Amino acid sequence: MTKILVIGAGGVGSVATHKMAMLQDVFSDITLASRREVKCKDIADSVMAKVGRQIQTAELDADDTNATARLIEKTGAELVVNLALPYQDLTIMEACLKAGAHYLDTANYEPVDEAKFEYHWQWAYQDRFEKAGLMALLGSGFDPGVTNVFTAYTKKHLVSQMHTLDILDCNDGDHGQHFATNFNPEINIREVTAPARHWQDGGWVETPALSTRHSFDFPKVGSRNMYLMYHEELESLSKHYPELQRARFWMTFGESYLAHLEVLQNVGLTSIEPILYQGREIVPLQFLKAVLPDPGSLGKTTTGKTCIGTIITGQQDGQEKTAYVYNVCDHEVCFAEVGSQAVSYTTGVPAMIGAALMATGTWSGKGVFNMEQFDPDPFMAMLNDHGLPWQVKTLDQGLPF
Ligand code: NDP
Questions:
Q1: Is residue 175 assigned to a domain?
Q2: pLDDT tens digits for 73-93?
Q3: How many angstroms is it from 162 CA to the middle of ligand 1?
Q4: Of 303, 332, 84, 280, whose CA–CA distance to 177 is shortest?
Q5: Domain end (from 87, 110, 138)
Q6: Strand partners, 309
Q7: How far is the CA of 318 from the centre of ligand 1 (A)?
Q8: Nearest residue CA, atom 31 of ligand 1?
Q9: 3-class SS at 22?
Q10: Dihedral through CA 308, CA 312, CA 317, CA 318, nearest 10?
Q11: At 309, phi and psi to the nearest 5?
């Protein structure tokens, strides 16, 4: 029985809160706090309507460590689940140390003025969390998150000597809008427009954004173009599995998304460099976010599926083997269950599972951890039980691209 504080009332926060409310034995008291309490109250009403449980709400600016620590103390939270934005990771980790609470997030810390996608700021908290006897679990979403657990599962059960890792993220959803991102637009566009980087023979290889493309036949979706990108879990996975000779991340994009993005980029609207507008500094990408649809509002109209997984080549019992582990998730099924589309769902459910494993002591430790450092089996079992069932396929022809 754990008292929990969830910070961030966006698409992911909404799903995680609904799912936590369904597990009363694990999460005894839930408080949802965010910059605007009205968004928390809307989610609380939906949780009451769908699950029949009352959750508490609060207004919080999580950039303020002292205010966050005070709220942790006031709610008695033993675990803080950070589903705000990556900019708040460090202030919330500080608040956890101050108030003596465990910590979980789904995205690595990002400085506001530079797109980095690096873990070192958060890994630097290792000693302080260890000394305080507290645990911080980083990246408990889908990617990072489930993809790290799929890798750990493959290593444990399917391919004992891993050679290459490819993470394949396909969102084949159609939201009916000309251009929209399926999670926070600012973070999403920063990620997509950053140069691609992959791990090869002990170092990083950088290539221009969206310059390497392959087609892949995704289960239940069909053949789609996917593009090489950098994604943060490559950093922790290449560190924790030094046997990997190569690790890459791929994401699918439709022609229309790419065409819109190219125009927005060409006219400077994706830039994070502040500009002067009518005597005021504004960041073009933040302005763009303000005019784009709120990802949380796309659930009602989104149809289609996501398919995210890992393909790992290597050896098992002296034989070459290629194992594909993946999940397929349907946008409309997610919306019917919790009122959100599949991108929020596939992130919010693993956040709930990570929190549940911490709350029950199934995953425990002192310090700062990535997902692959724990036994994957209880996490994989909970994915099957809580809406994200997975499949394993052996690819007899090896890696198909
Ligand atoms: P949203 O933008 O929908 O939600 C973020 C919420 O955090 C908003 O309600 C926002 O408030 C709130 N917030 C922002 N700043 C503060 C602050 N200073 N103090 C308190 N609350 C704040 O984002 P998503 O729900 O789509 O994403 C949430 C997180 O999940 C992000 O970090 C994202 O990167 C991560 N993510 C991870 C994925 C994974 O697979 N690992 C995939 C998708 C997302 P307001 O409503 O007032 O703006």
A1: yes
A2: 999 999 999 999 999 999 999
A3: 34
A4: 303
A5: 138
A6: 168, 326
A7: 45
A8: 85
A9: coil
A10: 160
A11: -165, -175
Question: How far is the C-alpha of 397 from the C-alpha of 321, rounded, in Å?
Answer: 9
The minimum-distance atom of ligand 1 relative to the CA of 36 is 47
Quick check: 160 and 314 in contact, CB under 8 A?
yes
At 18-44, the pLDDT tens digits run: 999 999 999 999 999 999 999 999 999
In a domain, 356, yes or no: no
Indicate if 111 and 179 belong to the same structural domain: no
Q: What is the dihedral of CA 361, 367, 369, 375, to 10 degrees?
A: -40
**Residue span of the structural domain in which 273 resides:** 146-337+391-395
Q: Is residue 162 part of a domain?
A: yes
For the chain, percent of residues with pLDDT exceeding 70: 100
- Contacts (Cβ under 8 Å, ≥6 apart) of 154: 162, 310, 312, 323, 325
Distance CA 77, CA 347 (A): 22
pLDDT at residue 1, as a whole number:
67
Q: What number does the ligand 1 atom closest to the CA of 62 have?
A: 19
Q: Does pTM surpass 0.85?
A: yes
226: pLDDT confidence band, cut at 50, 70 and 90?
A: very high
Sequence-ordered list of residues with C-beta below 8 angstroms from that of 192, at least 6 positions apart, any chain:
209, 210, 229, 251, 253, 261
Q: What are 158-188's pLDDT values in tens digits?
A: 999 999 999 999 999 999 999 998 888 888 8
Indicate which residue's Cα is closest to atom 10 of ligand 1: 8
**Domain containing residue 158: CATH number:** 3.30.360.10
Q: Which atom of ligand 1 is nearest to the CA of 296?
A: 3
Query: Which residues does ligand 1 sit against, CB inside 6 Å?
Result: 7-13, 34-36, 39, 60-63, 83-86, 88, 106-107, 139, 141-145, 183-184, 187, 295-296, 347
